[in-house]
Amino acid sequence: MNWDDTTRGAPSAPGTPAASDTEDRLVGSLADGEDQAVEAALRPKDLDEFIGQEKVREQLDLVLRAARARGATADHVLLSGAPGLGKTTLSMIIAAEMAAPIRITSGPAIQHAGDLAAILSSLQEGEVLFLDEIHRMSRPAEEMLYMAMEDFRVDVIVGKGPGATAIPLDLPPFTLVGATTRAGLLPPPLRDRFGFTAHMEFYEPTELERVIRRSAHLLDVHIEAEGAAEIAGRSRGTPRIANRLLRRVRDYAQVKADGVITREVAAAALGVYEVDTRGLDRLDRAVLEALLKLFGGGPVGLSTLSVAVGEERETVEEVAEPFLVREGLLARTPRGRIATPAAWAHLGLTPPPAAGAGPGGSGQQHLFGT
């Protein structure tokens, strides 16, 4: 997204794609164009409307209230966490609470220090700059950001070689809101310049039920409490996925039922879209089935497993594995990937005697691939 045509309420810049087909998955946590448009309509406008992340909301509310009381711009804010948990929404809420405009860009879009200098030099006093995937910024731009955040100044280099001259450029006070899915990749000098940092946690099913009921109301969809619970249980703890599943269940209810989302309707709809009771989709189950049926539960190397399911190595590692590990269905070990007893139970399969012996893969002497 180009920085100079974004304003308050603009959709978020896309997250880091793990694979080319990530956005095609119904339970993928990245947002495509349609998702961004719908999310913009469903986004809460202030902290009181924002559901979940109780500690983050409480802490952020104190930061913003104190800044308003002082008549100053808010401290720089760093939000970390998985895609789809509300980092972009919170950045827009920060701008709304401070009655300030917001400008949105992303780390991959800033590949040169001059790109960042152009953005910073055009900011208004008090403006909020939202920098998504901040860890993917180029190193020269990153180093320029240090001074901009701390001293509200940048040095623009004119010329090259021995004749190059640094021209200091003063900036108006502004608030930088950085978002990242990989906080560990941020260099300490950058991380330390944020006055407030927060980690976004995955949502509990009860919180997702509230998100779904609110979204259903805004979409003018009639949903029963049991229907909301059914969708929430398959949403991977992520509001973006919950809203996406709600829209697909709404379509099913309009075509196949009377438009009312009950538990039965939600279960039938998500069955059509191949999202099972734990939120696993086709790719997730393909990985588990290959691991269990072809390799006896492992250990098996990532490359071999990727070939077995017909996907790129990066797709399996960055798209499917994190959720399977978080659900306790798959474990990464030094010898390869292994299935846990829960994986056998979920697919209704009986493990061989040596399977499920624990993360060390005790009793399993084979290793498929690397």
From TrEMBL:
Classification via CDD domains: AAA
Any one GO biological process: DNA repair
Region (Large ATPase domain (RuvB-L)) residue spans: 23-203
Catalytic function, reaction form: ATP + H2O = ADP + phosphate + H(+)
UniProt feature coiled coil, ranges: none
Recorded GO MF terms: ATP binding; four-way junction DNA binding; four-way junction helicase activity; hydrolase activity
Broad class of where this protein is predominantly found: cytoplasm
Enzyme class, spelled out: hydrolase
Low complexity: compositionally biased ranges: 8-20
Residues that, per the record, bind ATP: 42-43, 84, 87-89, 150-152, 193, 203, 240
Region (Head domain (RuvB-H)): 277-370
Binding site residues for DNA: 313, 332, 337
UniProt domain AAA+ ATPase: residue ranges: 73-204
UniProt KW Hydrolase keyword: yes
Oxidoreductase among keywords: no
Positions bound to Mg(2+): 88
Subcellular localization: Cytoplasm
Its biological purpose: The RuvA-RuvB-RuvC complex processes Holliday junction (HJ) DNA during genetic recombination and DNA repair, while the RuvA-RuvB complex plays an important role in the rescue of blocked DNA replication forks via replication fork reversal (RFR). RuvA specifically binds to HJ cruciform DNA, conferring on it an open structure. The RuvB hexamer acts as an ATP-dependent pump, pulling dsDNA into and through the RuvAB complex. RuvB forms 2 homohexamers on either side of HJ DNA bound by 1 or 2 RuvA tetramers; 4 subunits per hexamer contact DNA at a time.
Domain notes: Has 3 domains, the large (RuvB-L) and small ATPase (RuvB-S) domains and the C-terminal head (RuvB-H) domain. The head domain binds DNA, while the ATPase domains jointly bind ATP, ADP or are empty depending on the state of the subunit in the translocation cycle. During a single DNA translocation step the structure of each domain remains the same, but their relative positions change.
Assembly mode: Homohexamer. Forms an RuvA(8)-RuvB(12)-Holliday junction (HJ) complex. HJ DNA is sandwiched between 2 RuvA tetramers; dsDNA enters through RuvA and exits via RuvB. An RuvB hexamer assembles on each DNA strand where it exits the tetramer. Each RuvB hexamer is contacted by two RuvA subunits (via domain III) on 2 adjacent RuvB subunits; this complex drives branch migration. In the full resolvosome a probable DNA-RuvA(4)-RuvB(12)-RuvC(2) complex forms which resolves the HJ.
Family to which this protein belongs: Belongs to the RuvB family.
Protein name: Holliday junction branch migration complex subunit RuvB
Species of the source: Streptomyces sulfonofaciens
